[in-house]
Design goal:
This protein is an alpha/beta fold. Helix content is 34%, strand content 29%. The chain is built from 10 helices and 13 strands. It has a 9-stranded mixed β-sheet with strand order 5-4-1-8-9-10-11-12-13, sandwiched between helices. The chain has a 4-stranded mixed β-sheet with strand order 3-2-6-7. Helix 2 links the parallel strand 4 and strand 5. The chain is globular and about 65 Å long. The two termini are 22 Å apart. The model has no long low-confidence stretch (mean pLDDT 91).
Length: 311
């Protein structure tokens, strides 16, 4: 296996309608946005891939795209950012879009354009991934619960059989059982609570997450906790707690994508997992200070993880 990263999952085109509001509509009590410009960014699994590339690692993306204008725009964005794209196109597929109307960096409205993923499309993506797996030792599954990772359990098993590592961002999926046996699963605190049960104090948090990791037979469970930082639960070792970087939070959109990408970039460069978690924590502290779906660079994190690992 080479040192490249394979990202698999639900991709989307994030579109921003940016303008100004000067009056309320006479038709209904809603603001009228006077359009100034539209800008676009890669979202979902595509944003994970863009972040990996931005941090200096070779990356490929396997995903579903509709044969539509949004799919073409997303493919162009990925090409510009150095991501090698492997897309499944099938009849009935629609490229997911999140369209945000914003004024002065404040979101007024979000419009989601999406359709259910046909079963044959999800199967075709799994087959594509199986063909790509031998060339990658790190596989990132970015699950936005849109249907692309319907066969995520088979992907986890195949990667493990080939000696690779699977890192999963389950997003809002409450049932993590499809990722049983993964090397690392990275939920946020709300997702961890939905999957493992509620807690009332730190001791309860430790018990719940330790049990969840054991129940799913995970090597590692990394819980991101917002302003409380991150907690890494690992097999046969003490929990690692990392404090959050103290920065102004402007927009949390895509922060989980950045954490997953930064983890992979550091691991791909030969760092230990503990170092990778700290690196991802710094990256997350930076990206939440940006508006919209965004990526980070080594200069912003204050360290080129690839070059540092090579010295």
């Amino acid at each position: 296996m080479n040192q490249g990263v394979l990202v698999v999952g639900d991709s989307m085109l994030d579109r921003y309608w940016d303008g100004r509001v000067e009056r309320i509509s006479p038709e209904a009590p809603v603001p009228v946005l006077r359009m100034g410009r539209e800008w676009q960014r890669a979202g979902g699994a595509a944003n994970v891939a863009v972040n990996v590339a931005s941090l200096g690692c070779a990356v490929e993306l396997a995903t579903l795209l509709g044969d539509d204008d949004a799919g073409q725009r997303l493919a162009a964005l990925l090409h510009e950012r150095g991501v090698r794209l492997h897309a499944v196109h099938r009849e009935g597929l629609v490229t997911t879009q999140k369209i945000r109307a914003v004024c002065r960096r404040q979101q007024l409205l979000r419009v989601d354009v999406e359709e259910d993923v046909p079963g044959d499309s999800a199967r075709a993506l799994a087959d594509l991934v199986f063909d790509l797996l031998p060339a990658h030792r790190l596989v990132l599954l970015s699950d936005y619960d849109k249907g692309a990772l319907r066969h995520g359990d088979a992907m986890v098993r195949r990667v493990a059989a080939q000696g690779g590592r699977v890192l999963v961002d389950p997003k809002s999926t409450a049932d993590f059982t499809r990722y049983r046996g993964a090397w690392l699963v990275k939920p946020n605190e709300a997702e961890a609570r939905a999957a493992g049960g509620a807690w009332s104090d730190d001791a309860g948090f430790e018990r719940r997450m330790t049990h969840l990791r054991e129940q799913l037979d995970l090597e590692h469970l990394l819980v991101t906790r917002g302003e409380q930082g991150m907690a890494l639960f690992s097999r046969d070792r003490a929990t690692l707690h990392v404090r959050a970087e103290q920065r102004e939070v402007f927009d949390v959109s895509g922060a989980g994508d950045t954490v997953l990408a930064a983890l992979a970039a550091a691991l791909c460069a030969g760092r230990t997992l503990d170092d990778a978690v700290r690196y991802a924590n710094r990256a997350a502290g930076i990206v939440v200070g940006k508006f919209g779906t965004a990526s980070v660079t080594p200069a912003e994190v204050g360290e080129d993880v690839v070059e540092t690992a090579a010295t």
